[in-house]
């Protein structure tokens, strides 16, 4: 009897179109970022921006496609360690997934991210300014956070070697670190020990000179990019004093000149919460050959110059995480229907997106402002005396300003990135918590910034040291004043400019009084003061951008962002917020998507901020340059 052919079974649920649960896959991370484009157009000569634009666009396309794929795959296939070969010989082999190697090829070789501030790449005639360098890294970091760490350490190690190392060390090792070929060297910094942690002065790894050759002995507890070709290691030469003054910096190659393994062993790899694609491990030295970098008594200061560079990179990567998380949340809200409309039309969703937007654009503004200061500090170095150039913080104002900005950005941006990325996960809802989507990876990676290169408390205290020891407050406040004085003085901007000028005076008085404070009291307020300085700078930069946007485009969109930032972080809120807000009107989406916004929908927010400013000026009349008028209304002094 013939058998009956049954129709194929189908799942009862129809396949949902991708647009129902959208993400950013396929979105160009540079071309979709109008805020970054305007920042670069303002900061760079037109010819330099025009030359960089196609490369940034290409990288942005990679971030939205191939780099996103590679990053997700590498994150789920962490590196593995093979300490010994089959005969028991130490080989310190760390095996990476092919996706990690391909990301490294794209970053180091195709785009020259490590070399670009040291050597010409991508057809440019000379090394790129830090503003443009960090733009490339900012775009790349929106896809891959983990690999950016070893690339950053390599970049920083080159800077240290070229500044403090001998010509021989630079010929033998430094040139390989800036290579964009397949035989390039990667770098690392081995600093942390079990008993030390942030207290680097307690480090015990010893350096011994044997027959004219330096050797390392001891243990390093946390070594990121542990399989690096070269590592800058802090160690205490025999007989050196305790504390940081007794530490020296040494360059330790992975392989000796004859190709054999150097005398150290990777004991294990760390099982980390995030940045899982990059290898961090523990190392034992048993006579590892190394080479002194600079004077033996200046190792800690030299290492801190590398750490400070890495700290700024950390802030950059956290800024990139915020931007990616915001873009994911915005894309989801624009395409996800709920309660009869798209999510972005819902007031509370707009409020969530606004909070994320404020931190993202403030961080971007602070990052690229600091990159400009970095370029100015580098330009000033050749004009200094040799002893001034060799100082860990050269005495000229741009270097001193950078000394304060670097830990400040690291401390605040990395901390706030945690909140922004968590908000992004929540904005996507249940899907955000599932690792099919990128939000969980962003959240895990975001935890790193506030811990590595100094916790929030450590860098907040470092901000105080920059003010107390390096007089870094003076150039910082001078730049803020200069920017405020250059702003438009019409009825829209003048009251805000006047307020920020008074607020800056208040912060400067606090900085000037630090030497008179009890150290314990001063330290207790370190984090709060660091945030105050950051918010002052961020608000000033946002207002500067708003002023430029009005002049160039006739749009008040950035002014709306500035006003919201002032209310969120600086001006006290004494009553429930007036519901009249551009974020609740039809212009709300234009603010969130960098569209054109007229002044009318911003007017209510502007009025509310001016009311708060009047109250502040009444309480701080001497700082505001105004005196209380009759009935508490302020009047010109």
Describe what you observe in this structure.
- It is globular and about 75 Å long.
- Helix 9 (about 345-380) crosses helix 17 and helix 11 (about 395-430) runs antiparallel to helix 13.
- It is about 50% helix and about 10% strand.
- Strands 4-5-9-7-6 form a five-stranded mixed β-barrel.
- With about 625 residues, it is α+β, with helices and mostly antiparallel strands.
- The chain contains 21 helices and 13 strands.
- Among the domains are: about 35-80 and about 90-175, Butyryl-Coa Dehydrogenase, subunit A, domain 1 (Orthogonal Bundle); about 185-300, Butyryl-CoA Dehydrogenase, subunit A, domain 2 (Beta Barrel); about 475-635, no CATH class.
């Amino acid at each position: 009897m013939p058998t009956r052919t049954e129709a194929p079974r189908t799942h009862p649920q129809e396949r949902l179109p991708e647009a129902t649960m959208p993400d950013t896959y396929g979105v160009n991370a540079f071309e979709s970022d109008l805020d970054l484009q305007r920042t670069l157009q303002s900061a760079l000569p037109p010819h330099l921006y025009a030359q960089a634009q196609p490369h940034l666009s290409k990288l942005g396309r990679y971030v939205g496609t191939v780099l996103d794929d590679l990053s997700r795959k590498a994150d789920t296939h962490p590196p593995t360690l093979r300490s010994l070969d089959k005969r028991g010989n130490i080989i310190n082999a760390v095996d990476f997934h092919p996706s990690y190697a391909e990301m490294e090829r794209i970053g180091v070789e195709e785009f020259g991210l490590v070399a670009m501030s040291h050597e010409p790449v991508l057809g440019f005639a000379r090394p790129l300014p830090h503003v443009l360098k960090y733009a490339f890294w900012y775009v790349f970091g929106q896809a891959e956070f983990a690999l950016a760490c070893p690339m950053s350490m390599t970049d920083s190690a080159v800077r240290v070697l070229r500044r403090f190392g001998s010509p021989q060390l630079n010929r033998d090792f430094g040139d390989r670190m800036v290579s964009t070929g397949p035989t390039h060297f990667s770098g690392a910094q081995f600093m942390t020990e079990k008993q030390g942690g942030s207290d680097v002065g307690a480090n015990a790894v010893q350096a011994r000179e044997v027959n004219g050759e330096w050797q390392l002995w001891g243990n390093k507890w946390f070594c990121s990019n542990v399989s690096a070709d070269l590592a800058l290691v802090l160690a205490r030469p025999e007989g050196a004093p305790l504390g940081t003054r007794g530490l020296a910096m040494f360059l330790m190659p992975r392989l000796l000149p004859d190709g054999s393994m150097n005398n150290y062993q990777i004991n294990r790899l760390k099982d980390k919460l995030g940045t899982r694609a990059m290898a961090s491990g523990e190392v034992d030295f048993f006579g590892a050959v190394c080479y002194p970098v600079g004077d033996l008594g200046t190792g800690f200061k030299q290492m801190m110059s590398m750490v400070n560079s890495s700290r700024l990179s950390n802030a950059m990567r956290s800024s990139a995480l915020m931007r990616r998380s915001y873009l994911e949340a915005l894309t989801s809200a624009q395409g996800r229907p709920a309660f009869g409309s798209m999510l972005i039309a819902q007031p509370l969703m707009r409020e969530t997106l606004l909070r994320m937007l404020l931190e993202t654009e403030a961080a971007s503004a602070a990052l690229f402002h600091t990159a400009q200061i970095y370029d100015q500090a580098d330009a000033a170095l050749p004009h200094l005396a040799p002893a001034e150039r060799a100082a860990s913080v050269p005495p000229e104002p741009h270097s001193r300003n950078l000394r304060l900005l670097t830990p400040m950005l690291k401390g605040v941006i990395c901390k706030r990135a945690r909140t922004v990325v968590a908000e992004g996960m929540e904005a996507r809802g249940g899907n955000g918590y599932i690792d099919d989507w990128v939000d969980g990876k962003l959240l895990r990676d975001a935890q790193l910034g506030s811990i590595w290169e100094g916790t929030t408390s450590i860098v907040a205290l470092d901000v105080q040291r920059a003010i107390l020891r390096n007089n870094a407050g003076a150039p910082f406040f001078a730049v803020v004043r200069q920017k405020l004085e250059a702003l438009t003085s019409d009825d829209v901007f003048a009251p805000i400019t006047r307020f920020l000028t008074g607020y800056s005076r208040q912060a400067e008085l606090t900085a000037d009084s630090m030497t008179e404070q009890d150290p314990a009291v001063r330290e207790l307020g370190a984090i709060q003061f660091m945030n105050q300085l950051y918010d002052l700078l961020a608000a000033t930069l946002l207002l500067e951008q708003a002023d430029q946007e009005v002049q160039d485009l006739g749009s008040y969109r950035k002014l709306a962002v500035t006003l919201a930032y002032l209310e969120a972080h600086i001006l006290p809120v004494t009553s429930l917020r007036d519901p009249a807000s551009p974020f609740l009107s039809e212009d709300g989406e234009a603010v969130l998507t960098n569209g054109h916004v007229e002044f009318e929908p911003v007017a209510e927010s502007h009025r509310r901020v001016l009311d708060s400013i009047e109250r502040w000026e009444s309480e701080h009349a001497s700082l505001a340059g105004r005196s209380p008028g009759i009935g508490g209304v302020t009047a010109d002094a």
